[in-house]
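Batch manifest, entry 17 of 40.
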Amino acid sequence: MGKDDIPHNKVLALADNGQDLKVTAVTHAQISDLCCDCLDYSNTAKSTLTAMNVEEGSGEESYAPLLAKVKSDSREFPSTLLEEHKRAARKGAIILGSFLAVFAGISIAVLQKVVAFVMGIFQ
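Output type: C-alpha cells
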C-alpha cells in the first residue's frame, strides 16, 4: 500500500481535546484537507485534534460535520512547560557539545597516529 492509499471501506474520525483514537493510516492529503477545513471553523482555533480513519458506520465522509462539533481544549497548558523545555534543551546542548568535543579530540589523536605511522613507512 502506498503512502497515500487508504482502503475504500474507511471513513474519517476526529477527536478533540487531544483525545486518542485507534492509530490508522492517514494520508498527507487528508491532513492538508483537515488543516484547510479548520480555517472555516472558529471553534477549532484553540483545540488539539486527532484525526484517523475508521470503519464505515463509525465516522464521516468529510470533516465538516466533525469540525462543527469540536470544542476548545479544556486542559490547562502549564506556564512552566516552556521554561522546562528550554532548560532541557540547554542541558542537552551542553551534553551533546561535550560529546562532540571528546569525539573530535579522540579523532584528532587517532588521525595523528595514522599520519605518523604512514610517514614512518615512507621514510
